[in-house]
Write a structure and sequence with these properties.
Four copies of one chain form a homotetramer. With 341 residues, chain A is α+β, with helices and mostly antiparallel strands. Chain A is built from seven helices and 15 strands. In chain A, the strands form three sheets. Chain A has a seven-stranded antiparallel beta sheet. The first copy, chain A, has a six-stranded antiparallel beta sheet with strand order 5-6-7-8-14-15, with helices on one face. Chain A has a two-stranded antiparallel sheet with strand order 10-11. In chain A, helix 5 crosses helix 6. The two termini of chain A are 28 Å apart. Chains C and D meet through loops of C and loops of D.
Chain lengths: 341, 341, 341, 341
């Protein structure tokens, strides 16, 4: 039961407004425990990480992201609290970890970075120990040696890197990142099939190069529901009432801020729209938001009644489903191109 | 919202059976979040500690307790998991911390130790910053310099040490520990009165010398409820069903095991009895259990109907009240002597 | 045997050039162990800290410094390594700690901060446990409650705060900081005298408000040598040879960079000048450097031959003396005003 | 530049006498820095670990070792200091780590354990990134998934496990462990040859099952010297002078204690004998000590003058050579059988 948040804005956000001050941030949330079936694992205390890009380009500092991670809980990390008051960024990834695979170690904290790229994951790759070596065999030497920890997530990132023409490039076309993401999911599905793994994998992945963001809400199943994923957009994100109560305001038609998160980050659930299962969501450099179905054998068309009846028990048992009280149809911002994989 | 557990047995317990394996241990519990009003602070990830006495006396090793503490969450501490599988003890204090005052630091983790004594606290001393210097002024130089961290709890322990005739003694009469505990509470009440502090203090304290255990369920208020405190006793404490489901069994009249905890540690709530508010509970070296009213101006006699109507909002707001579904009158094991303070 | 470094420049420095990349930085130094008499304590692995001010003022971010501390060794702290590559600042305090008093805890890591002020210390206050309560009694309630850890250094900072007319002010005259520093030293000497402490105290202190820097090289003895303190100034500080070999270059008469450090930070010892014992060194907001004798009963005039014969054993035994191979007379940049205390 | 120590005794040792109290323990040593060429890496602060077997068998606790590891420096680890005062064991592995490969993480701390086995390493496998996948391909699924960290050492342990007929066995013949060790070295040499790696690997390995100990002093070179390895034996190991000065005493012919260490652990260097390069040293369950040449293409017979002229620069540059002031010929305790590989 990890949690993550993505922020992309035309103006930089002070990290504290995203991470440490809001009472509903991924760090401070008092999660609703009634949905939790996994009573042996307390929530979200197994480390965290935040990654961000500079708000002003400085030749000397370069354009790679900066990453701060810790194995102590985020809500009580004095360094995070101090840094969040001093750092602004137009593109932030935040992640709170609950171990499913992988030990408590900085090496296992998301987001992972390579060159200009950042990546994080919420979910779990089923039977990963059965496919790890198969995956490693497909990596180039460079990418193989990037992997420092022992999580399925970091290996998925390495696989995604291996799907890119040049993972060390200075810039990536949005479409290149989209295709690498689709290839990663397809390859993981292939490995699972070869290994005879029937349990579904929960693959909510996000990747960015500092310009584009590509995220997925995906499960390798036609019947089970994916881990939850929501987005919100507006003009300003600010505190409207003392005690860390934040709200997304929409002053005009322009979208200055887009946030994607594993669950709604404000009490105003109407501000949050759910991303459809087995869809990819893309934020372009120019702040357009696209939602694109991932059409493979696990895809169920929204016109198929079965799409409304996915079984939530699997994701809920893993603590990966937020309450769907505010289910609102997603309104993509432009005509999405449907990619097939 | 700290949690603690005390184990005293005629036979040593493997620490894992108390701490890491039971699904309802203070470490693994999935706490019922419906009672929590403090939505800004996640639960119980701010460090933990366990203290224990040797199961076999060894002249070279001495008779002081051993303490293991950490600032990372207990449920994922590989050292705790390993040590708990290898250590047995007849008297254990375990504590999981949620910061109220004091920073995240090993110096602030309970239990605290001095010579043969161990101490821990669940609750909070109201307006502590207003009385800290007054308290420090009352300590001997030796005891003053014992304090390493910045918590109210450690200062309360230092105060208790200063109430003992010889805090470095090799043994203590049970009654000596009881009196020091009563003196500590009385002195803290005096400081609060002098400083004009009207908010109640929650003083669930425990102290042991390895032989006797003295614990309190106490609040400096006639109207508010204290933080919860429960006990259970029996012959064996063991797993009756896979997945960490433990139960206290009572094979005969003899009490081989006594456990005191901030909330019931098994699903079998009938096994747990609530300790009355503003009472002291004592385990003697010979495993007798006494419950003794702390009769001061905050005491309300059980025969007074007001005793049933203490307001639970204060303690609940601090996350210090467990659900009272299994309220059972406490049956003290012998005729308690009532001490006045 | 702590180490510290101060950087103040007309242009911001990337923290990595100060802390992580130079082979002679306070973090990476392979200290000469031949001077060390304290064979029981390894060097400089007991935590570190770095504090800095923003290079560009941002109303939303405010003007207080940011502090990053850790209890793991600095040379292997992945967060420090990453942050140092991304942060630039015109005024930096860096500190590597070896515990003398105080436990291993973030609360005990320098620099300490309060409002706009930062403070750090290299040395030790003799018999501190004998004067701690006396010192605490002299603090205001506000300042008393600032102290989080258990070091002599943090208490000295609290004392300095109590010597300022308004420790929460937005700006301080350089002279106000100088006077507070002198008062702090004088008061600590008074406490020691009252308590009958005869061992000298090593008081190399530094304080800044983001504009001025005040540092001392001081020992409360006429006969023993103080902990070492050096400075260097120039136009650029950069790598002249691979492997982290840095040098201070002086392109013209202008002083763009002033560094003060517990020992020379480059192989070019000629670039480093020693600050005289029992002197205060001041960097003004306009980058003038003053050296001012601290004239009290422990002062020995440079014209007195005894000034050349201070006994180095005491400081060396504490690991606080760097080899004086490059002893060069200090050339203060302007006519210092001599303050008496 | 790691350090390790092995203790095996007929009586259990209190861990503090081995680890925390002696001024020359692997934790407290003030290493002679004059031999160090690697000036960029401070010494031995990158975590440590200790593993031990119970001194009394307890059916409930089982016979696997207990491991305690940390990423903060050992000399200041309050948990280690407390545990070492309370734990006794007849067979202890202690290890202090300086990172060469692998990040700062508990997963990377030695000793590593599997079932009844413990393993540690001092040295480095040359070009490990070039042979890691080759090594992994040779592991069984079980053993592959044992590896949690990213060090060459843990992979070498996994390889050794794969050389055992049953790595989960309850007991191992001494000779089985010896053969697995030889096979591990031979296989690593083979991988290096296949990958065209010419830099020598430093393979000082130790493995134990709680009964036998097998350690190697080995380098894959005919010309360079291996990392240092010493042993001492006697009747008692105790403090003869205040300040942590320990000595090995030999009261009679019986060997009650055998210690093997990366460098002499007392000032009495005459008590320590150097193990010959490219030899295996074995402690049998009955406390016999054998020294056995590892005869392969890198072996140089002691009768060959070249054996005295191995070049120490390579090992010294890695900080892995202790001063050979007390070079004493090793006197093996019984007629060793020479194994060929």
């Amino acid at each position: 039961m990890c949690r993550f948040v993505i922020y992309k804005g035309t103006s930089p956000v002070q990290l504290s407004h995203l991470l440490t001050r809001p009472c509903h941030s991924i760090i401070n949330q008092a999660f609703d425990s009634r949905l939790r079936l996994d009573h042996r694992r307390p929530i979200n205390g197994d480390g965290f990480g935040v990654g961000w890009y500079d708000s002003v380009h400085d030749e000397e500092l370069g354009s790679q992201p900066c990453i701060f991670t810790a194995v102590t809980p985020a809500w009580n990390n004095i360094n995070l609290i101090r840094l969040a008051e001093k750092i602004k960024s137009p593109l932030v990834f935040g992640h709170v970890r609950a171990t499913t695979t992988g030990s408590l170690s900085l090496d296992n904290c998301h987001p992972f970075a390579y060159g200009k790229l950042m990546f994080m994951h919420n979910g779990g790759i089923a039977g990963f120990h059965l496919i790890k070596r198969r995956l490693q065999a497909d990596l180039s030497d460079d990418v193989f040696n990037v992997v420092q920890g022992n999580t399925d997530s970091e290996c998925a990132f390495a696989l995604l890197l291996s799907k890119l023409p040049d993972p060390k490039a200075n810039s990536f076309a949005t479409r290149t990142l989209q295709q690498a993401m689709l290839d990663t999911i397809a390859t993981l599905n292939l490995y699972a099939e070869e290994a005879g793994i029937t349990e579904p994998s929960l693959m909510n992945f996000c990747v960015t190069d500092g310009e584009s963001v590509v995220a997925t809400r995906y499960i390798s199943s036609r019947h089970d529901e994916a881990a939850s994923l929501w987005f919100s957009s507006g003009t300003t994100f600010s505190e409207y009432a003392q005690g860390g109560h934040y709200r997304m305001a929409k002053a005009d038609k322009r979208e200055n801020i887009i946030m994607i998160a594993s669950e709604p980050l404000t009490f105003e659930k109407a501000d949050w729209m759910e991303i459809r299962t087995n869809n990819m969501v893309v934020i372009t450099p120019k702040m357009n938001l696209l939602q694109i179905p991932i059409v493979d054998k696990f895809y169920v068309s929204p016109s198929d009644p079965a799409s409304l009846n996915r079984d939530t028990d699997f994701a809920a048992a893993k603590g990966l489903l937020s309450p769907r009280k505010a289910l609102v149809p997603v309104q993509p911002r432009e005509n999405p191109t449907q990619l097939s994989i």
